[in-house]
Amino acid sequence: MKILPVVLALANVAFFSILSASADDLHDLRRAVEQDHVPGVHKLIQAGKATVDTWVYPPGFDNRGLPILGLAAREGSERVTEYLIQARANLNARPHTKESPLMLAALFPDEIGGDPSVYDKHERIARQLIDAGADLENEPGEFTPLAYSAYYGHIRITRYLLEKGALVDGGVVDGVARSNTALIFAAMNGHKETVRLLLEHGADVRIANSWGNDAVYYAKKNNQNHVLPDLLCARDLQAGETFAEKCSKPSWSWGRGLF
Q: CA 216 → CA 54, 144, 187, 193, 259, distances in Å?
């Protein structure tokens, strides 16, 4: 199926159609999205059983459900994601968990299926969403797409978000991270390359969360000692100094503040 011509022909009708989906229809829609089966999704939309913004209720997710674009992003369903984007689905529809499709695309453990191609699929989906105009931020005080990509150390997605203008300390309100920042997540999980990338883009190592704990605290707590030199060097920066200029020098003594 050639996606674009078909989608453009039905997009307006599908979007505004009156949803009369049964439980079986929603089950079939969810399965089609999870299996990355565009014809199955298209058939239900064309029949008026669903729209491009229908919510479904997958097991293991918040019982209040999520939009099918979010499910496609979470499951790595690349073809369905492309179909829904072209059909003008709401790129920023968030379930009650406040997780946008872009966030769900960025949050996945590397060990899923033991298949490195999973990373590539999620990266392509994240790029599709970003390039289509998905929000790079979240509501004030909530987790951000950058924080989600940093949690598992997905360096390529993190870099692309930063290149496209994501705020390195996004989600911070009045100097406090009500939800953990990207740097806190990267530090607590020991993702050295991601930590360095964030610091090079100006991440503030002094920002603490609502419990008063910062990136250094979590790195120490989780015995991620290999990221501490960069964090402590960044914490010592003076006005006018940059991480790249000062903290790449081997002469910097990182023992201070380690214990």
A: 42, 20, 7, 16, 11
Q: Which residues of 112-122 are buried (b: 16+ CB within 10 A; e: fewer)?
A: eeeeeebbebb
Write the CA distances from 183 to 70, 127, 229, 241, integer angstroms: 25, 21, 14, 19
Domain residue limits at 213: 136-259
Dist. CA 94–CA 35, nearest whole Å: 22
Judge if 147 and 259 occupy the same domain.
yes
Among 135, 151, 177, give the residue marking a domain's end: 135
Domain end residue (candidates: 135, 167, 184): 135
The b-or-e profile of 134-158 (16+ CB within 10 A means b, else e) is bbbbbeeebbbbbbbbbbbbbbebb
Single-letter residue type at 236: D
pLDDT at 7 over 90: no
Each residue's pLDDT tens digit, 141-173 = 999 999 999 999 999 999 999 999 999 999 999
19: DSSP letter: P
Amino acid (1-letter code) at residue 200 = E
